[in-house]
Amino acid sequence: MSFSISGKVELASNTHIPISGVSVQAFGTKVEILKDNLVCKPSLENFRESETHKRLDQGDSYEVLKVVRGYDGKQNHFAQLQFPDGSVGWIVYQWNEESYGRLFSDPASSKTWTDSEGEFSLNTETSSPVILRFVKSPADSDTEGKGYFDAYSRIISEPKDDLQIGMEAANYMVEEKDILALLPDWKDYSYGGPAKAPKGYMVDKIWNRTSQNKIACNTFTEALLFEAWERKYGKHKDFRVSLSQHREYMINNRALDFYQNEAGEWIANGDVFGPVNLLVEKGIALSMERAIGDWEDTDYPDMVRKRSWLTCQGWSKWDPDCYYDEQDDLYRLKAKSVSGHNYMIVSISEDEEKVLSLESNLAYRINGVGIRYLGDLSKRKDDLMKDGQINPNKDAHWTQKIDWKLADIKEKHKDGDVNKTAKSLAYAQLKVCNLNWADNLIM
Fold first, then answer.
1. Which of 59, 132, 160, 245 is the least crowded, having the fewest Cβ atoms under 10 Å away?
2. Residue 13 — pLDDT band, cuts 50, 70, 90?
3. What is the mean pLDDT of the chain?
4. Rounded distance between C-alpha atoms, residue 285 and residue 240, angstroms
């Protein structure tokens, strides 16, 4: 059994302007059984004591009707399954550290597009609940790169004929694949400095020349992001970085000027969040004023706005101590008196328990460029690299153990009180659409 969904897509600015040519596709959730003879029970209540409904074989896959995470406040996750004979039952797919099933998103083969009035109609091809994804990338001929951030419906489990979706427009959008295509260039890098960009990268012309494949956090995001936008739109808009802008991005002493207040505290007179603000200024990112993790559902009741591809600059320590440099006539920071990190949040899970962060680091199973706790590009070949190319296995990322949560980000930066303003983290929305790696379409 399948069911139909129809509705309308509009510009999300209360103007009710229809958007034509939007790709609409349904995604269900399935589970792959990882253990032989896995017990399936008829009910979630009294799961341990209830009788067995079925026993499932390793390698089999079933449609998921419902997911319950953190049952009884513990790290135990359950899924209700639909079987080919029409019956339903519950399994535990994660029990503490042990995995018994792997959830994965299952795209329907049918796909449709909105018409000139922004309207669409789609058959789900399944009786299980689905999430609809809405995508419209810039046309290749569009010199200003007008596109839309991907939009998503809430979980839909029955026919619906009045779905309303709002999509936010932006110029100079790049597709996620444009960024992923650059990642193999970094597979032989280790963390450190002085930094060297891969051959042909625009920023390498203004960096200190070195023969070593070394990269740090700020230099990695600067090289990767400006290169992606320059390659896509460089013929129509200048995304190159000048030397002064590079110094601003590095937040170094030539971009910051320190002075002492009456209390003897060192205050930075300059942009301590230079990387994020420069990306906004150059048109690569949109500023985000609200608190991180506040998911803004917009004015469309059936739509959930998911945040992916955030650029972040956070300070974990801000206790500046300076000395006077007579040669350059400025105050320089003493080593280790401040510390911070620059990185990209690829995506955040719905429950905020898992964060995929793309970064350059020398910690968290990374030496060079990688995903925190999942490894770097050179080592994690089964997930991040395959045959020399990036392998966007998004569902595997979400079902593996990642010890990096949204709460950890807030905790990490809580002591970075910059200039006594209680601000320690800045972030912005990168203009990225047509997401595959960052998508979390699992219920």
1. 59
2. confident
3. 84
4. 15
Q: What is the CA radius of gyration of the chain?
A: 24
3-state DSSP helix/strand/coil % of the chain, to nearest 5: 15, 40, 45
CA distances from 58 to 32, 33, 239, 322, 381 (A): 8, 5, 51, 61, 24
What DSSP element (H or E) covers 180? helix 176-180
Q: How far apart are CA 343 and CA 339, in angstroms?
A: 14
Q: Could you tell me the CA-to-CA distances from 36 to 23, 101, 111, 116 in Å, in that order?
A: 39, 11, 35, 51
- Predicted confidence (pLDDT) at residue 252 exceeds the cutoff of 80: no
Calculate the alpha carbon distances from 280 to 3, 55, 305, 314, 431 in Å: 42, 54, 20, 16, 10
Write the single-letter amino acid at 432: V
Interior angle at CA 309, CA 304 and CA 314, nearest 5: 115
Structure tokens at 14: 């209360």
Query: Nearest Cα to 225, choosing from 342, 356, 55, 396?
Result: 342
pLDDT in tens, 192-225: 988 889 999 999 888 877 778 999 999 999 999 9
Q: Is the pLDDT of residue 68 over 60?
A: yes
Q: Which residues contact 407 (CB under 8 A, 6 or more apart)?
A: 352
| Lookup: tokens for 399 | 């079902």
Residue type, 407: A
Bridge partners of 321, per DSSP, are none
- Mean pLDDT throughout 327-355? 80
What does the alpha-carbon distance between residue 408 and residue 216 come to, in Å, rounded to a whole number?
21
> What pTM, to 2 d.p., does this model score?
0.86
Region 165-175 average pLDDT: 93
* DSSP strand pairing (355-363 vs 338-348): antiparallel
- For residue 81, give the nearest of 68, 97, 98 by alpha carbon: 68
- The residue length of the chain stands at 443
Provide mean pLDDT across the span 31-35.
91
pLDDT (tens digit, 9 = 90+) per residue, 94-122?
887 788 988 888 888 789 999 999 999 99
3-class SS string, 355-413 = EEEEEEEEECCEEEEEECCCEECCCCCCCCEECCEECCCHHHHHHCCCCCCHHHHHHHC
